[in-house]
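dumping these here so i dont lose them again. two proteins, back to back, each one seq then structure tokens. dont judge the mess
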Amino acid sequence: MKNRSIYFALLFLLVCSQVMTSCKKNTSGATAWEYNTPENGGFFKMKYREQETGPGLVLVEGGTFTMGSVEEDLKFAWDNVARRVTVSSFYMDETEVTNQYWLDYLTWLKLVYGDEYPELINRALPDTLVWREKMEFNEPFVDYYLRHPSYQEYPVVGVNWLQANDYCQWRTDRVNEFILVREKILKWNTSAQTADEHFTTQTYYAGQYQGEQKSPGLKDVNAKNEDGKGFRRVRMEDGMMLPNYRLPTEAEWEYAALGLIGNSFQELVTDRRSYPWDGHFVRNDGTDGSYFGSIRANFTRGNGDLMGVAGALNDNAEITAPVYAYPPNDYGLYNMAGNVSEWVLDVYRPLSPEDKSDFRPFRGNVYQTKVLNNDGTIADKYDKNYYDVAGVDSFLTKYERQAIIEEHLTPQDQQLLTSLITKVDDAKVKTKERKYDEAQEKMGEVMEEVTSSEAVIAPDLRDAIADYITNTSGHQKMRNVNVEENIDRRNYQRADNIDYLDGDYQSTIYAKDGLVEMEKDENRMYDWGRTTLVNNRSRVIKGGNWRDRAYYTIPGTRRYLDERRSLSTLGFRCAMTRVGSPTGIGSRGEDDE
């Protein structure tokens, strides 16, 4: 009995010792130094559980799957041979981006850029003229589809790939701004934000945006904090703000569309899927006890049958349908088959299946880094818009040539065009001399002359030149990495890897004995415009749409389009990278103190 009492006493002391140890402040397992205290210099460790799910997103748990065509290749394109790949967990919008969401975007642009750069609002407008067809009466859609409230929950169309990426960047900044307001770091001050002084995630991290403070900031455990008041700005290490919204990669989109999580048992996928649902039928088979016989997606059923018979419309939509019109797939994603096709991040190549990696496959990497000052600090953000000089030059040359052929130029028009082309030529020279700021000053003069001109063609030129704005005022300066700074790297050296293994120097048909006998240009492999429409601006589009037959609702199908073009059948949805655990640590609290 005495031994038992001693045993329980020792056990009690052991438990108390463990509890007391666990209650101590968090210390480093490498040095035993205490975290989050000013006494030893303020080594920082965040008490963090997992990534917050952004608005509109659902988690797509990653894994391996067979990517590519699993059905007969009806076009005999052989551009999507099946292969096994692995996709990391990520987030994706549960629906396509709607007209209402895009109107929200336009409203913000007017608030911030409307006074100084109205051309940026026109640059962001969807092309409503995509509805026009020579032998169809579609003018009502041209006039009403984007702005009428009847269509506010319908997917936005007429948006090109570049516009979609701009929206993703804008959405990232607005969501992170909301988080800082929600956490009482900042106050709402949208009405006070201007073209060169508005919130972006990167300029906030760099200390180049102040805003209106709600609180002094987060408690700073660093004994040498800058203001000496014990507070600091939010940093990436805090995990408070979210990663960037972006377009999904082709592999991510296809994986999410199939939704194989719904028909797998442990490590076994029980049934292969052709569509985002089980079976080989496009009608509901009634296995869920409801909607028996109903069409599962919005597509064209046959020649001339886009909606069915009055009184029994098969998909209840003659064009697009509301984004929640059909049941979601097993990931909770709506309209991954039909309604509108969707932009993805990848550059198109017919041989992508043979070139891409089996882990997170993607073609389109262009590596960038922050622009730094001579002392190593981050350069000030853009204080004006920056233009693609070569793009503007190409456009003006083509515009003048076509206008002369059509005999549409007035003397004032011709004078304006000649002056603009001269200024752009000067900007090209400055660019070759690496005097980039001087080149952009010339481009600013180009836009000023257009906006102040009374020539007939001036409005058209203003909107067209605005399409070649590559960086807008108020954003952080970025540049492509160069070979010189990556001399000792083995994994990459060049910034632009779009045509790696399929169009670069090593793979070009003009290479002889390891040398390339032609100038460096993007058409050295693909003779764009004569033998093919594939080049480095060709982007993959995925999924079927309201004009397609059922074949294109199969996730493995793929098509492509120039990144500057848009269609009445093409929309997009955003994705976001999942950082950390693929499934989340839940409430296990591995990072608890």
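---- next one ----
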Amino acid sequence: MKTSMTEWFKGGTPWIWLSAGAVSISLIMVIGLLLLIAARGLEQFWPSEVVTFEYGLTVEEKVLLLGEIVDQEKVSAKRVREQGIEVPAEMLHVERFLLKQGNRDLTGLDFQWVVATSMGEQTQPKNIVVVEREEWGDFYGYLDGVKESGQVVEEEQWASVQEKIKRKQDISEKIKHIEKNLIGKVNFKVEKLRLRERRLQLDNIITKAPYETLVKERAVLDQEYAKFQEQLIELYKQINRDSITLSTGAGQKLELPLSKVRRIYQPNGMNLWQKIQFYFAKISEFIFDDPREANTEGGIFPAIFGTVLMVLLMSILVTPFGVVAAVYLHEYAHKGPLTRMIRIAVNNLAGVPSVVYGVFGLGFFVYFLGGNIDVLFFPEALPAPTFGTPGLLWSSLTLAILTVPVVIVATEEGLSRIPRSIREGSLALGATKAETLWRTVLPMASPAMMTGLILAVARAAGEVAPLMMVGVVKLAPSLAVDANYPFLHLDRKFMHLGFHIYDVGFQSPNVEAARPLVFATALTLVILIIALNFAAIKIRNHLREKYISAAQ
């Protein structure tokens, strides 16, 4: 028996099972974490039931509360008694619920903890409405009436208010198009004219002709701007025509212009199909809309767009640097002290904290390189910086430097796996070393390059610390890509999913409201990284199959 156990250990079977167990536990933990993030992030989009009940801090003092129960926990009864809430003496622990009551503009708080022992019977009236507002969060209460130009609408209220909200949304889209696209384009051209005029002044041009041309162009733009302003004034009159009157569970009255309402619905009166439609509509808004209310509500499209664009630019920048360095080290550099120092430096770069790269990017790229670019090429914009301020280009370059060691190591591994006989055969057929490298070696090493790029993308997409110094912001007013020449604006600041998670989770003035958004944004970032990696993996596998079949 002892001999068989010794042979079993020597054969390595226990270590195989141990490794398999460790991998299985790791997979279970990763899958469990993703499921937790998905459950906590996606549940916020489901239209929860709204309850109303009497709540008494004491036997004599009772109030009527209304809202969604979003969380529950058990706490010490002593802690509850210290807050002035009556609890039976024999109880050691009390269950309490977190009630999302909304109406922040009226009560000052979106959320309130309520103790189970002080709660009366819960009811779920079907006529309770939830109003999603442009500001001040959600409103919970009852719909009392609909007004049009100050006059009460006598038609059926619910159908009337839904029709007017649809009309308001159509007008809002027109206003957004005029403000962001049409007027935005005019403002962009006006700013270009200002910079052209400033350039003429710096060049000491005193002839009248260039200035008169600018004046004529500015006059045309002013006319366009005035026309768009007239359209906006008319649209704002239309959108401010309607309003609704509401009341809270406690009887407080509120008149709300429909221009400040995004959606109104009755969650207790919705059937399953209506809830599913609502759920996917909310997810769509979360992905494709802009954020609002200090990033605690609305969507995350600018952050998704900024993350993807930055990763793509980083990939374009890091691949040539990493491949050229790897080719030099493996194909051209002689073994010696200098080559060993370079390899040591590359390995050490992989272990440098990312925030150090951010400091380097801020000092070298932004202040030194960007500042000199402004002096040489954009003097008319000074003292306002163009490239001498954090932006998309410098963020991409900083992350390219951060991830270039990964690409170098992976590419070198790929080059070392190519048989020497292939190089010698190419040279024997009359190809030069450069032709051999370009037409034979590098194509066969391309799967390894893609492996390095996959690892680089996985790391860069989740980095936050360096980006906080070189371009990422809480809210970017404009995307880095638009219809204005040169279409891709590398000098602009941008939003990033990683920083968005940090900002909403730790800098939000309304922590409870922001918590589900943190999980939803984190899930989006994970899905985005997986999608980018899968795309790169598919390209790598295609290249691998192509050159394996060619070699055969």
